[in-house]
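The following block was generated as part of the benchmark described in Methods. Ligand: 3-hydroxy-3-methylglutaryl-coenzyme A.
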Amino acid sequence: MNLPKKVKIVEVGPRDGLQNEKETISADVKVELVDRLTDAGFVNIEAASFVSPKWVPQMATSTEVMARIKRKPGVIYSALTPNMKGLEAALEAKADEVVIFGAASEAFSQKNINCSIAESIERFREVAQTAKQHNIRLRGSISTAFGCPYQGEVAPEAVADVVRRMRDLGCDEIDIADTIGVGTPNKIKAVYEAVAKDFPLERLSGHFHDTYGQALANIYAAMEAGVSIFHSSVAGLGGCPYAKGATGNVSTEDVLYLMQGLGIETGIDLDKVVDAGQFISQHLGRKAVSRAGNAIAAKRAA
Ligand code: HMG
Ligand code: MG
């Protein structure tokens, strides 16, 4: 299959990236990060997460962050909402899109959101209906779609089953997530082939963590399978608090470098993303986990 001419990159660094940081990051820094990303040209930024602060303390400033970011018209600022309490906070914060997040493996569902897959879908029903009543975009995210840290193998049909349930809840877009980065290109293709029977490929995304260094190859494979929405994290920030050893999402700088080389349009200014990556990495006191980001920064300094 031909590669797409254009892809949508959803920047998830402010949420997926920062949620795993142990040291509290001030709202000032989070706001500046989101503003820099807005300025770089993203049309969708995952900026907040309205989850229990006991579970993910770093996201406790989400209301403040959403109130203080400079919003650019047309840009979708998304927030995670695992239940009605989260949805109410997201509505209050004027999120443009809410994300219900489940899993393709029972064990991960229990660890991450403290309920079974079936219970999570029941919990999401009211969240989805209320989001629709408020005309807010609804996204579904499916963790451990290519493997689970507790259960191991996950069958493509298990992913397809959750896709159908999220479709029936009215999701506008569904993320197929490699939470622990174990997928390789043939597995990626097999999963998209299975789920595309039940949901349009143009509304399916790839959310790939880069734990085993496979994310760019997997993005390429997913594009060959017809996917054109990808999630990435500036400076490769992140990990999942409920997936031990999981590292960040594929770095946005690396994805943009790949897209540039392939002549695929993203609408995003790579130089500004490199700046944002260096900004947040300096703040965290470590080098960015982005090959392209660090190479471009080093070339500039030379
Ligand atoms: P629970 O303990 O079963 O829920 O947690 P509960 O309803 O019994 O509530 C427990 C306490 O949390 C109560 O407070 C609630 O008020 C409070 P208390 O009475 O004890 O003081 N609470 C909340 N507070 C703020 N906002 C809320 C909220 N809900 C309850 N929305 C729950 C269930 C889902 C809440 C919990 O398990 C949770 O917050 N989990 C979130 C885990 C998480 O954020 N994980 C990371 C994001 S997912 C991810 O990274 C994967 C993804 O990137 C894709 C991939 O890579 O795989 C998306
Ligand atoms: Mg993730």
